[in-house]
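Many introductory courses stop at the sequence. We go one step further.
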Amino acid sequence: MIEMIKVSRTYEPNITALSDISLSIETGEMFFLIGRSGAGKTTLLKLICNMEVPTKGLIEVAGYNINQLKGKDLAHLRQKIGVAYQDFKLLSDRTVAENIAIAMEVSYKKPRAIKQRVRDLLDQLLLADKHNTITSELSRGEQQRVALARAVANSPRLILVDEPTGNLDASTTRQVMELLNRSKMAGATIVIATHDASIYQQSKHRVMELRSGTMHSLTRGDL
């Protein structure tokens, strides 16, 4: 699903966020990317979904060189990618339901199917009572769950999640991971950037660490 070959990203004047990253993530894999704040996790996710472009190197997503796609081709691929941003990027003047529905509306899903999917996701994330609440009135933890629901709503082939449990207690974290696992079982490839050891230490999924912009493989003993 994702192939990165010798990818680097630098910012002016001379800041190296990522250096010579090579990484393959298989279709249907759940992959954990760990590292301290500033290690480059968010930058890597932005490169995968073409929010930023690499300074050098090749990035392929679903067999496409994502940095060469333009117009309709890029828009079509982006519809297959769901992103839950660390800063949420919710529409603060819209309701919870409207925020989640947007991802499906751009793909021309039927209104009845959209309404049912929104309700199902809110039930799974213990947010059923927030259906008609304006998102700016939610707590940060609630906003975080709404952002995740929006990311998975359209059943994308690739889901990128940036710090999904940073504002959540243990019980709500469990609900979030159950939702992501259901998406994986449905065939999605999932990349989770996190510093929350509780969600990957007991997992059987692959974990790699970014340190100062370089990638390091980890064994179970390292966790």
